Amino acid sequence: xxxxxxxxxxxxxxxxxxxxxxxxxxxxxxxxxxxxxxxxxxxxxxxxxxxxxxxxxxxxxxxxxxxxxxxxxxxxxxxxxxxxxxxxxxxxxxxxxxxxxxxxxxxxxxxxxxxxxxxxxxxxxxxxxxxxxxxxxxxxxxxxxxxxxxxxxxxxxxxxxxxxxxxxxxxxxxxxxxxxxxxxxxxxxxxxxxxxxxxxxxxxxxxxxxxxxxxxxxxxxxxxxxxxxxxxxxxxxxxxxxxxxxxxxxxxxxxxxxxxxxxxxxxxxxxxxxxxxxxxxxxxxxxxxxxxxxxxxxxxxxxxxxxxxxxxxxxxxxxxxxxxxxxxxxxxxxxxxxxxxxxxxxxxxxxxxxxxxxxxxxxxxxxxxxxxxxxxxxxxxxxxxxxxxxxxxxxxxxxxxxxxxxxxxxxxxxxxxxxxxxxxxxxxxxxxxxxxxxxxxxxxxxxx
Length: 448
Ligand code: HAM
Prior knowledge:
Elements: H1 14-32, E1 37-38, E2 44-46, H2 47-54, H3 59-63, E3 66-68, H4 71-78, E4 89-91, H5 96-105, E5 116-125, E6 137-146, H6 151-168, E7 175-181, H7 188-201, H8 208-216, H9 227-233, H10 245-260, E8 266-267, E9 279-287, E10 296-302, H11 306-309, E11 317-323, H12 324-334, E12 344-350, H13 353-365, E13 372-376, H14 391-400, E14 405-409, H15 411-416, E15 418-423, E16 429-433, H16 434-440
Parallel strand pairs: 1-5, 7-8, 12-13, 12-14
Antiparallel strand pairs: 2-4, 3-4, 5-6, 6-11, 7-9, 9-10, 10-11, 14-15, 15-16
The structure holds histidyl-adenosine monophosphate.
């Protein structure tokens, strides 16, 4: 039996590949205008980066990381030898920890200068149970901004995320932007204690995992899927009562800036997010039409202690990431724009050897023509068959390749320097001279 791709992964090709390219193009334009520069970091990092950066009490670190060892180290492991922590590598489950590591390691952070503003696009890996909108390899586009605690940057990040959705063709009227502040190292400990106490006083309604969570990371219980925990947590204390003056003022500014930018949001005091590095602002955008349980298309927030946590300078940061596959589902459900940017597809059909050599020249000449996509019959010869196939066979191929127009070229056409142009949707024919084809169809025509 042929080997299949691993569960929870997809091959990207055809229209979806075009959509991924388009998504990156929209990101480049949207983020570029706000002074964010594209970077690329390795798809794997030292395991320790994620354990320290994302937090060892999160599901991502505890249950969902794909960790890798080189061949030699696997042998060592089998024979019971210790593997050095340097050799323990993990496929990145998200882009923030790697981006911050790169900024620290490459010395991009200069506290006397403007903040570092970077963006990235690429595959991420999480060993989750696959379902619609949840994969084991998926693609994210994200931005990170390091070196400023100015609330205008939090609001700008949110506006940029919503703008990216719009540019890509997602109906933002079907989105809800959830917003919260998780406080800082000064005010969060008291809040954590309050939630822990609440869980302990509700032991009969809480699941075993939440009881364990209560010790290490009680806020995780807000995300528990167990219906009893969910309903119990509705009465849990909320962070807004615990924010210190500094966090309150910061959050008020973020909201003011969003109001100013006319960016709608809903305050959700139970939004805690699944990664432990967040401080102050957190946000998540859900798409409310047909995505089912996995309807978060993007999310992020501030992480003022992450750089220090991974051994860098104590500088604040913030960012977000959006999931390509979920955004594509949202775009399809939005139907606010045509599905893909369609190029004008021309299929040239030569009917004899002479016309074929002309067609081949035309094919090469138009390789870099941004206006059209020119294709022709390039199937290998079958033994004993002439290399120019019948009109019927070539037309079938043209239809299959989704071309809009066929340019038919026989001996008459070659003599009269024209094409028979067939509209492949209406099947209507017309004659167009080589000169007119140059102008009307934006093609380059070879000198015979
Ligand atoms: P996240 O919320 O874990 O945040 O992921 C961001 C987005 O990636 C989600 O909203 C979702 O669209 C997509 N996503 C996550 N997991 C999967 C999956 N298994 N299958 C398909 N799509 C998925 C982060 O990753 C943070 N690093 C965001 C950030 C950047 N915060 C600050 N800077």
